[in-house]
Specification:
This protein is α+β, with helices and mostly antiparallel strands. It is 19% helix and 24% strand.
Length: 185
């Protein structure tokens, strides 16, 4: 019992003693052909994997001055575009002071639009979470990591509390928009 081979189909392990290279070995159970592994197959697989990895990454221009140069037809990078992960933690600035921070987002599962920011107000009073629509955002200061809303702290404080168990249905949204005295979407 010098050499064992395993069938790729049924998994049966069997002896392959004194079988000359190039000859066909068949599985005793399922009769599928069993192939000998090439001696250099691991090295070849590693070489192909490294080549694929190198070719996978696109060329990135390292000259920063060329980043602003673009030809007509190319789309310029939108400096307002940010990852939701980056915006998480930004502080909420109301008309009359700071209130809390962005904790999460509610995304419309059909349109992928951000419907609400989940604002954690524990920075200002004991741990209430409320919803604020992106339509009510006045501006965002990326450098200060602040989201400015044109609402007062008292209005947000009186807002209906949002919990993970809250059922976000049309009635809840109508009540929320009514509380903020804003039109729905």
């Amino acid at each position: 019992m010098d050499k064992l081979v395993a069938c790729q189909t049924c998994g049966l392990v069997q002896e392959a003693d004194d079988v000359p290279k190039g000859s066909v070995i068949k599985c005793a159970r399922c009769h599928f052909q069993i192939f000998h592994r090439r001696v250099d197959s691991r090295v070849r697989t590693l070489a192909f994997s490294i080549a694929a990895l190198i070719l996978y990454y696109p060329y990135i221009e390292s000259n920063h001055e060329k980043w602003n140069d673009f030809t007509p037809g190319e789309k310029k990078w939108d400096h307002h575009l940010r990852s939701s992960h980056e915006v998480t933690g930004y502080h909420i600035q109301t008309e009359d002071g700071e209130l809390g921070h962005v904790e999460d987002f509610i995304i419309d599962d059909e349109t992928w639009a951000i419907r609400y920011l989940i604002v954690n107000t524990s920075n200002w009073w004991a741990g209430k979470k409320v919803l604020v629509s992106p339509q009510w955002i006045e501006r965002v200061n990326w450098g200060q990591r602040k989201v400015f809303v044109n609402l007062s702290r008292e209005t947000i404080k009186q807002s209906p509390e949002y919990t993970e168990e809250s059922l976000l249905n049309r009635d809840y949204e109508i009540g929320l928009h009514g509380h903020y005295n804003r039109k729905g979407y």
